[in-house]
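Before drawing any conclusions, I needed to go through one protein's amino acid sequence and its backbone structure tokens, quoted below without any editing.
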Amino acid sequence: MELKVGKDLFALCGKCDATWHVIVAMDGGKVTKVQCKQCMGYHRYRVPPGETNVNQTKTAAKPRRTVGTTSKAAAARSKAAPKDALPLVAADLSRPVRAYAMTHTYEPGERIEHPKFGQGVVESLPEPGKVSVFFESGRRTLAHGRTASPSL
């Protein structure tokens, strides 16, 4: 059977589970896109159960990308700061908890309340304009001591 655009073939439709399709697009000799004759939907070519692949190419299976995985940087952060870790500096309980704002300045030991990360303890000032804060979810570097931008 010669494969070309416009020819009919069996493929699996994820929307309606029909198998009768028309080839819409090909890449070289491989079927890439089909149209279902039942629901008229377009999708990638999927081999129906119990059938062999009409593309007849022996390619290594590509790992499927899973939804919801974290990036390498996020994974490194979570490994670097496990949830049972303790802050490097003890919280100064004599001071009240302050709401976080980039325009405020902070000192090690102060407690802050961040709208996203919750309550945390300021650990250090790694460089000008930045503050390292220990939250229950991990350590974060936040901005501090910024001047308010002029309004337009």
The chain has a mean pLDDT of 77. The first helix runs from residue 72 to 80. The chain has two domains: 1-54, 72-143.
